[in-house]
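Rotation project, supervised by the postdoc (A.L.). Task for the rotation student: set up a whole-complex structure prediction and record inputs and outputs verbatim in this book. Inputs entered:
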Amino acid sequence: MSANAGFRPELVCPAGTPAGLRAAVDAGADAVYCGYVGPTNARNFPGLNFTREEMAEAIQYAHARGAKVLVTINSFPAAGRFEEWRKAVDDAVAAGADALILCDIGVLEYAAGEHPGQRLHLSVQAGASSPEAIRWHVREFGIKRVVLPRILTVAEIRRVQEQVPCEIEAFVFGNIGMMAEGRCALSNYATGCSTNMDGVCSPADQVSYEKDEAGNLNSRLGGFTIDRYGPDERAGYPTICKGRYDTPVGRCKYVFEEPRSLNLVPLLPDLVAAGVTALKIEGRQRSKAYVRAVVSAFRQALDALAAGGTPDIAALSALAEGQRTTTGAFGSKAWR
Amino acid sequence: MIIRDMLRAYAPPPMRRLAEGDMRALLPPPGLLRRLPPPPLLPLQPPLHRIVTDIARKHPRLFARLGDNAGRRFLVDVEELPFVLLLQPRPAAPTFRAYHRHRVPAHDVRIAGTFEALFRLLDSEADSDALFFSRDIVVEGDTEAIVALRNAIDDLEGPLTEDVAAAFGPLAGILRRLLAALRVIFEETPS
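Outputs recorded:
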């Protein structure tokens, strides 16, 4: 019997569309996070996200099945555009959101002041990784949960948890980059768009793929070739941090991170023991087939863990970027 | 049982595979289907038009997700087929037509893959990013348009191939069986 027997952390799952949300709820999500169409959330992709009407319907669907909906308003308003974020907060509260996931201190101040009864979570985009930063957000805005950046080891998470008066949410599966969340401006140099204010790291209208006669796949962002995959090589996302470059260190090297996904299944017992109350799956940009598969697998893994068993979801590697996984910084600071 | 055993023992390999229930044995050798003389495409155009107009009528929300990308031309290249398909999902007048491979029409996006991969994608059985990572599908051209189309299709409830079959009213049952058989035939068959 493991030390985690009996404890059941909340499984927080992504949804980019109403169908994705229903798939997550039906597959066993305790909570689903999703955002509105437009720049107010950090997954501002074409054809993705929820209209106001869809969000209200989705919340009703989730509540009828005992699941929560956490609305992400987790980008930083550009000067002069604050009204869009204010309206997103008001609409999410009116729709019955169980929590708002926010990062900008202006948006937090507005939500806490105008909707004092609304549960607020601090987005990973806030980049709050120290007890001091988290306590400040709790004191100023009454946040009930912090989503930790993917740059802490499990041992560091335990130390943070012991020093903060709020719940801890940690990513356990999905996309991972070598960055301080909410601070990364790497792709801005290639695209001219702001990851943190426009809500997208690699805007689709600046991404192109081209297969050459030799069968190589050339991946470009903003006109820059960021990778070339050989005919039999696994591909990755078109993000600057996953590209290969010629540098003084070597030719054609992954200098930041390789195409691979975070997978913390081996560390689940340690995370739970460290006091993490919610486990988050990344991937609002992914399909409902991904959501269904990953959520089902994690539901089974967590139930097995709560029953004192050992989770085993090795098959998830097929859904990983580059079809490879890593425990990232959670396992070791020597990750890269 | 005796006949099946005799087939297994003495028949040529394709018949042996058929006797073992492997419908892929019905296929010509890998790649040959594509190299066959171009089939007449005229009879294909009315059913293709019917499919796209029926889906457009049933799923108006699909166009909202497509936004400005509804005017883009999507070339669908099923590797095993001797022709390609061109989809232009304009809300007022969507079109879906077949073209010979030697006359590929102008397009904004090309989506290529095996019948099996594209079929699983249409029915939301497979994750498009995973198929892209594994190189089972190839996308070229206007990435914004293809991302929008992927997300719009992904928001549809139920398998899209069911909508394709349902477009044919009383013939839906036959079409369902045909699609299922095609899927078995093409499954894991090298192109």
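Student's summary: Chain B has one domain: 41-186.
Supervisor addendum: The interface with chain A takes residues 64-67, 69, 124-130, 132-135, 138-145, 147-152, 154-157 of chain B (CB under 8 Å).
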